[in-house]
Specification:
Elements (H helix, E strand, L loop, with lengths): L3 E7 L3 H12 L4 E4 L7 H4 L3 E2 L2 E2 L4 E2 L3 H19 L4 E3 L2 E4 L3 H8 L5 H4 L2 E5 L14 E4 L3 E3 L1 H14 L3 E2 L9 E3 L2 E4 L2 E8 L19 E10 L6 E4 L1 E6 L2 E5 L13 H14 L4 E11 L8 E5 L2 E8 L5 H18 L15
Parallel strand pairs: 1-2, 1-14, 2-11, 7-16, 14-21
Antiparallel strand pairs: 3-10, 4-5, 6-10, 7-9, 8-9, 12-13, 13-14, 15-18, 15-19, 16-17, 17-18, 20-21
Helix pairs in contact: 1-8, 3-8
């Protein structure tokens, strides 16, 4: 293992993995620290990428940029790793009101939406399986990333390359010498923190207005036989013979333990959605790294440019990580501008 690197990346979750891949594509030498004992929201997440989000069913932020980019990025990673983790799958969004139905009837000709619309249904679809009395919209350019397959395979790849250290990184013992970061005998031009909720306790990132949010998912068995994802208050995602359902949101409980309240909330929504019986076989919880304005956080610290961050991906990490990892690399290497809504500079204005 070398002592000199261009970058030290802290965290090999979704953000750290995508950033490390983007840096290596740019020809950079990268050393990754990842704490195997730390809980990871990337491993709890079910990896849904869905261009239409929220109860109001609107295009997610930057959808026209993010979604074409993520498909190319993850396919490139699959080719590198010789594995499959990207699964394109339609997402069906049932309408919640007549007004929503009318609004969507006019969106097929809207260029912002048309690239994501497979078909609009004005009558119930698969009525024997799901409650959708007003029909809905079937979306394309959607699906899920099996995040555990991605992270396991990329971690093994980094280990083969001799650039992964499986231990906890300690921000408090960073030193600086000749405009370099020095850490336990390693030297790099910059260190980039991609370790999610751990950033809350990181003294270098104290200016960021963190607002972590807890989410939980259920693994269920059901007689329903779906080859698409349904999203109505909760998502129901087929994975082989089982399904995943989620997710909920809470800012009060910051523990990683599953709760009965979340179990009841998610299963209650699922009972309203699904006409077939189901049984719960597992439940998991994670803490998503979000900030007050629910936008990513990327860039270097104004007062300490050897320290950078790539975090705040929240509930849409699979969609956001590829595009903004590449944007951060362009900024670090070529001085390209970061989207103002994602720039860490907004916390220092």
């Amino acid at each position: 293992m070398n002592a000199e690197y261009d970058y030290i990346v802290v965290g090999q979750g979704l953000a750290g993995t995508c950033l490390t891949h983007a840096l290596r594509l740019a020809g950079k030498q990268v050393l990754v620290f990842d704490d195997p004992a730390a809980p990871s929201s990337s491993r709890v997440a079910k990896g849904l990428f869905n261009p239409v989000t929220g109860r109001n069913m609107v295009l997610t932020w930057q959808a026209q940029r993010l979604f074409p980019y993520l498909l190319k990025f993850y396919r490139n990673l699959e080719q590198l790793l010789g594995t499959t983790f990207l699964h394109e799958m339609p997402v069906y969004r049932p309408f919640l009101s007549r007004q929503q139905q009318n609004d969507w009837a006019g969106r097929e000709s809207d260029k912002r939406y048309s690239m994501f619309i497979d078909r609009i249904y004005l009558e119930p679809l698969w009525d024997e399986l799901i409650n959708n009395p007003l029909g809905g919209v079937m979306l394309k350019n959607s699906g899920y990333v099996d995040t555990n397959v991605l992270l396991d395979n990329y971690g093994a790849y980094l280990q083969e390359q001799g650039c992964l250290v499986r231990e906890r990184f300690l921000p408090d013992i960073i030193n600086f010498a000749q405009e370099k970061v020095v850490y336990k005998g390693y030297r790099a031009a910059k260190v980039v923190f991609c370790d999610g909720p751990a950033g809350v306790a990181n003294k270098w990132l104290a200016a960021i207005k963190w607002r972590p949010v807890k989410g939980e998912v259920l693994e269920v068995e059901t007689e329903a036989d779906l080859d698409f994802i349904v999203n109505k208050k909760v998502f129901l995602m087929p994975r082989g013979k089982r399904y995943f359902a989620g997710s909920n949101y809470t800012w009060q409980d910051q523990s990683w333990q599953p709760t009965q309240a979340a179990r009841e909330e998610i299963s209650g929504h699922l009972q309203q959605l699904l006409k077939k019986p189901f049984s719960i076989v597992d439940q998991k919880a994670g803490i998503r790294p979000t900030v007050h304005d629910r936008r990513p956080v990327l860039g270097t610290l104004p007062h300490q440019p050897q320290i950078a961050v790539f975090s705040g991906l929240g509930t849409k990490g699979v969609s956001l990580a590829p595009y903004f990892a590449s944007q951060l690399v362009a900024h670090l290497e070529k001085g390209a501008k970061i989207d103002p809504e994602a720039d860490i500079g907004r916390f220092f204005d």
